[in-house]
Amino acid sequence: MTFFSSTVPPTLALRIAYLEDDPLIAHEVSDWLREAGYDVQHYTDGQEFARAVERGGADACLLDWMLPGLSGPDVLCRLRLQLGANVPPVIFLTGRNAETDVVQALESGADDYLVKPLSRPVLLARLQAVLRRSGSTLPAARLRLGEIEADCSRRQIFVQGERVELTDRETDLALHFLQNVNRLLTRDFLIQTIWGLRPEVETRTVDVHVSALRRKLRLQPESGWRLVSVYGRGYRLERARSADEGPQTVPPELDD
């Protein structure tokens, strides 16, 4: 198997802001996107969604139409007013299939329009198309970090050529860290994106999974990479630096 190899950390995963109030649809679509290598933030409230996008929290937006509070078109209108030409690519995902609805969405600034029920390959292809047109780089399907190799599309991870047996949650965590090297991933962010905002999930659950991941992937200083705990916040995968190396530039953290 051939892997992408580089001496620099892999490209950060593209961030998809997803607005959908149906939990079953949201769970399924979020899984599709994460398995394709995207970093998904799911929202059920239009105002919260708009605030996150306005803070620069998305490379692309997926919008449902009918929502409590702000509707999908209302959200897009607000983003256009606040961000102007800097609104990320927008795709509507909706059950409304009238020609007038499609025209309204596209004329208001949407980049594409998909009618439910959704098709996984069509959604991913359309998303890649709008990202390509916007100049964004698609997430790497395969990546390498020191002794660790990952096939993101197959959700398989190897250490020194040997496949590592991971649970689904551990695999989700590993891919998030490998695609966000040097970026702090807060516990709240990990609970929201991996455990789906389940209220019974405690921060201790994240700590236990991270500890298992650190052991299974040998993320210790002697391997050249380490998964460090940031007290009171979360975790960051970073290069293990020697004492004579200079300071390290740290990208913004990913929070909820």
Automatic annotation (TrEMBL):
Residues 15-131 form the Response regulatory domain. It comes from the Bacteria. The keyword Phosphoprotein applies. InterPro entries: CheY-like_superfamily, OmpR/PhoB-type_DNA-bd, Sig_transdc_resp-reg_C-effctor, Sig_transdc_resp-reg_receiver, WalR-like, WH-like_DNA-bd_sf. Residues 140-239 form the OmpR/PhoB-type domain. The keyword Acyltransferase does not apply. Residues 140-239 bind DNA. The modification 4-aspartylphosphate is found at D64. Pfam families: Response_reg, Trans_reg_C. CDD domains: REC_OmpR, trans_reg_C. Keywords: DNA-binding, Phosphoprotein, Two-component regulatory system. PANTHER family: PHOSPHATE REGULON TRANSCRIPTIONAL REGULATORY PROTEIN PHOB, REGULATOR OF RPOS. This is Sensory transduction protein regX3. The gene is regX.
